[in-house]
Amino acid sequence: MITRRDFLSAGGIVVVLVNDLEAQESGGRRGRRGFGRPMPKAVSAWLHIGEDGAITAYTGKVEVGQNSRTSLTQAVAEELRVKPPAIGMIMGDTYLTPFDMGTFGSMTTPQMWPQMRKAAAAAREMLVDLAAQKWKVDRASVRVADGRVRNGSRSAGFGELTHGQKLTCTITASEALTAATEWKVAGTSVPKVNARAMVTGAHKYAYDMKRPGMLYGKVAYPPSFGAKLVSLEASAAEKMPGVKVVHEEDFVGVAAADPETAERALAALKAQWNPLAAETNSRDVYEYFKKHAESGPPAGVQLTPYTVAYIAHTPLEPRAAVAEWSSDGKLTVWTGTQRPFGVRDELVQHFGLAEDHVHVFMPDTGSGYGGKHTGETAIEAARLAKAAGHPVKRNWTRQEEMTWAYFRPGALIEVGGTVNPDGSIASWDFHSYNPGGAGLASPYEIANRREQEHRTRTPLRQGSYRALAATAHNFVRESYMDELAHSIGMDPLEFRLKNAKNERLRAAIQAAADKFGWKTRRKMASQSGVNSSVTGFGISAGFEKGGYFGCCVEIAVTNGTVKVVRVVEAFECGAIVNPEHLHNQVEGAIIMGLGGALFEHIDFAENKIITNRLSRYRVPRFADVPKIESVLLDRKDIVSAGAGETPIMGIAPAVGNAIFDATGQRIRKLPMAPNGIGGAANASAAAVL
């Protein structure tokens, strides 16, 4: 096992961060392993400058396609005054990086990005001190530029100044950072780090990992959720050459020298299971939420119900892990996860190991969207590897990913409100069952408001998904905003501006509307070329996790089929770290959001997932992608916020409002058009309850 000490033994500058980071990252959800754990008082080094001049930065954050490796590299390069290729970034390694709760909640930019800048700025000032001492000059005459420390005609590389010294400095919360208006590397479209290796296939993901002598593992899952193993006949599989069968209580798995043999061995197992009686199904689940809620709105309140289906994360790379045990009982796991330290804690607890006997390393993984917080494959691989005495790779299939992973929560949301003749909202009542509390509060100015989360039971395993509950809440809120606007004959844009007092929210709404041409939208409608098409326009807005957006869409409805033709989304998240990557985040979120808006949903019955493969589960395709225009509002006077989640929230309500504009039909459910709109396919949530 490689240790931090091995990396730092050559000398150089070590920058250590003290407790201001602990105050920022020690919060979080409770009741799940790894959350709520305080930061260690002595945090490992964030930055190392070797005597050869090599610069290595360390972070517990991980890369899941959101370009955090690039943005964090920019942070270090900006403050050290070097070019980005000079920075080596080690991420998500529980032996080499500082403890981190995980990569979630769009927190890399607001939390980790400034911390990496502080570490680099402290190192830069130490280099200035070293040069001033060496050259016996006033430190005010020393500057750092282009990867060198300079004073007049003299200059030295970083390694020349460290010269084998192992020095430690402490970062304070008041560390001087470069103003956003002065950025040279940050704030520019630095290309994605390792991009060439990724597109050529040279870069290795968790699914690609191999170890000497490695076996391939498969696990026998029950035929339905909650079923208990009654008996197992494994003799046929055990007779296969090189096959190891593992049976520990309800856990049954096999390991073999190749995936094909492992698959045959799994098929040879004869297991009997005792099923658990199903409590509900995907059609009746909204009644189930209401029935099992801990609380509800006051009696007699008139509310309109909306529903939101469970959906799957469908990451490009399903969950994967390789586990290897050493002869002294230590465990190393390579796995695709958003929480390497959380997975380490799960392994520690499951196997009863000391924390320093478990090393979890996260190779970059093919997307997460909040779906890779837990360590199922890591534990499965480790159980099989321990029994087999060899490293074991455990890669989930697409069907396993879409059956046994957790889902975005389904939701029942009830909303009501009244509006004054001048367009100001007089009252607002909002009640949410099951999705969670994210984005519950309206960003509009409403004096008389009640917004409540009602906890209830869920029949399916559920967890984080891009933007959490904020997508469901914003769909309902922005749809009902349109309902209120139409109830008094007011333009939906003007209605939002009337009730939006926050200047950042207003700016995002106006920027989207201006770029879209909202006021002249009827004249600017695209020509679909189909005589039976009807065109509609919709708008939405919102705020979450430090980001504000306005979203306008144009749709065409042809024989009940909804086609999103054009999307304009304005987004503001403070000072922009990387414009090109931010465009990618906004546009990717819009495309992903189209799936949940129009057709993605989990069908389940009798404790079984019916939509358990991509042939049964519709995700956005190239033909679904509209013309997308992202408008970025760069606020260099405001600290940078994350952008991985918030932009997904605008598309569903904007499309729903456009459908109403085109057809007069108000669809109060997600997805809105899995089989087109009209007739039974357009049944509102009111018909469900």
Brief descriptors of the model:
single chain; 689 residues; alpha/beta; Aldehyde Oxidoreductase, domain 4; 5-stranded mixed β-sheet; 18 helices; 28% helix; 23% strand; disordered N terminus; disordered C terminus
Largest sheet: 7 strands, mixed
How much helix is in the residues?
A: 25-40%
Q: Structural class of the secondary elements?
A: alpha/beta
- Assign the CATH topology of the largest domain: Aldehyde Oxidoreductase, domain 4
Figure out the total of helices.
Answer: 18
Shape: flat
Q: Name the poorly predicted regions.
A: 1-10, 18-35, 37-44, 679-689
Question: Summary?
Answer:
By secondary structure, the protein is an alpha/beta fold.
Please characterize this protein's 3D structure:
The chain is an alpha/beta fold and 689 residues long. It has 3 domains: 4-200, 2-Layer Sandwich (Aldehyde Oxidoreductase, domain 4); 206-275 and 319-395, Aldehyde Oxidoreductase, domain 4 (2-Layer Sandwich); 411-688, Aldehyde Oxidoreductase, domain 4 (2-Layer Sandwich), CATH 3.30.365. Helix content is 28%, strand content 23%.
